[in-house]
Amino acid sequence: MIRESLLEDISRINYLGNKFINNFSNTYNLINYLNDDKYLILVYLVDNEINAFLILLKNIDCYELEMIVVNDGYRQKGIASNLLDYVFNNYLKKDDVIILEVAVNNIPALNLYQKYNFSIINTRKKYYHGIDAYVMKKVI
Ligand SMILES: CC(C)(COP(=O)(O)OP(=O)(O)OC[C@H]1O[C@@H](n2cnc3c(N)ncnc32)[C@H](O)[C@@H]1OP(=O)(O)O)[C@@H](O)C(=O)NCCC(=O)NCCS
Question: Could you read off the pLDDT of 62-74 as tens digits, one per residue?
């Protein structure tokens, strides 16, 4: 089941985020995001627990996919795809632009975004602790 996140979800989302990047809970202030209309946080419940989440920012001229994380053990089951489909079907409309950044060596994420027809529009050198990042874009 996919739904918008609630205050009570924050510690679980931070737990999952911190498994992916060390300082997730310091970098992403989820409590502020919950009170800010520009941010959407979606959670994916499976086995009665949040095991994936997505953060979307509505910027002035485009949307930014800030983060998508699926817990270990729940990957390659279509969960990230379900989250992206949910965003595209329920929050974005034709001609909206969505961008994201991804480390060039994050093959699962790169494949996911390419499957959803995101194109590489730029490379940011040494963006993630010395690793380059692609900026990717999709027009709905
Ligand atoms: C990237 C990530 C979100 C994918 O989630 P997922 O639920 O496993 O993805 P899905 O099952 O929906 O897979 C969709 C597509 O992604 C690609 N993909 C997913 N896992 C992959 C892997 N291990 N190797 C290669 N491609 C992969 C494939 O193209 C796949 O399509 P296919 O099943 O038709 O081959 C997940 O691996 C993850 O949470 N990684 C850690 C966090 C992260 O890197 N987030 C993205 C950067 S913010």
Answer: 999 999 999 999 9
The stretch 85-114 carries a mean pLDDT of 97
137-41-98 Cα angle (round to 5): 10
Is 38 touching ligand 1 by the criterion CB < 6 Å? no
User: 108: how many CB neighbours lie within 10 A of its CB?
Assistant: 12
Contacts of residue 62, defined as CB under 8 A and 6 or more positions apart, other chains included, come to 96, 97, 98, 99
Task: State whether the beta carbon of 40 lies less than 6 angstroms from ligand 1.
Answer: no
